[in-house]
UniProtKB/TrEMBL annotation:
Membrane-crossing residue ranges in chain numbering: none
Organism: Chitinimonas lacunae
Domain Enoyl reductase (ER), residue spans: 16-335
Family stated for the protein in its record: Belongs to the zinc-containing alcohol dehydrogenase family. Quinone oxidoreductase subfamily.
Quaternary structure and interacting proteins, as annotated: Homotetramer.
Keywords from the UniProt entry: Cytoplasm, Metal-binding, NADP, Oxidoreductase, RNA-binding, Zinc
Oxidoreductase listed as a keyword: yes
Compartment annotation: Cytoplasm
Entry keyword Metal-binding: yes
SUPFAM superfamilies, alphabetized: GroES-like, NAD(P)-binding Rossmann-fold domains
CDD domains tied to this protein: AL_MDR
Protein name, per record: Zinc-type alcohol dehydrogenase-like protein
SMART domains named among the record's database cross-references: PKS_ER
Amino acid sequence: MKAVGLYRYLPIDHPEALLDLELPAPVPGPQDLLVRVEAVGVNPIDYKVRAPKDKQETTPRVLGWDAAGVVEQVGAEVTLFRPGDRVYYAGDITRAGSNAQLQLVDQRIAGAMPKTLDFARAAALPLTTITAWETFFERLGIDADGAHAGQTLLIIGGAGGVGSIGIQLAKRLAGLTVITTASRPESVAWCRELGADHVIDHRGELVAQLREIGLKHVDYIACFNDTDRHFRAMAELIRPQGKIASIVENVAPLPIELLKSKSATFVWEMMFTRSMFATPDMIEQHRLLTRVGQLIDDGRLRTTLAEVMGPINAANLRRAHAQLEDGHTIGKLVLQGF
């Protein structure tokens, strides 16, 4: 099968950073789906895993953690899907990724693809949707059916992949007042189009900008951009007994003591946790993606696809990685077909 992978961890402008390969087709285990990949989304996790380091693989490593495709075969214990089903999923960071014609994925972390979307639009959704959903509705404890409607949520980083679906989940499902950040006219417009009530500039002083729109505190904060830079502002802005979640790893120690007087919560979200540790509730990601698929089909949510960058090959993936590393991408980048 055709695939794109690496042996060495190199800067993205190096011609061997990602390579076109021919690899043997994988064989499904008991819980696995063997999926014929039709389209893949590209995410920051791709370039973070590929980042230069002093390491060399003896067998090629295939990246990619967003896919939509068709089930070709199923393992002996599979009950949720059958050959011919269209699925979408983010996969498991400990296994071979989606930048290949055929991929294995555990049935418990795959969802039925939205019927109203094509493969490219569906592939834009899984990783970011799981991340935003788990951040809001599991880590922060917000009710997905509107019990906390009217409460305030600050999303730091609203125009990227996670923020783009996050704005929709927070506004259209939970009914929250959504304040998000963006730094350019086109990204501000994108956030407003998706439903943000207020958009402020994450390059400026967050506290002062919140005061300008009449808010001293917010009930919840979701940090999708630069935890180190924004932690002190988040600690000041969160209400007493409020909750903060971040998906962005810190570089320096965080001054967590700033949250003590408010009895505020800080929690991490990593959407790969369930698959990495084979947690007993892995199937929640299947249920989540299936529910979101229905919400898409019902018109309550929309895809966050921004650009289809051509077929799945090393040259196009290098171009996608470079664009993401530049830090100015709005929505999601997708590649389709081999």
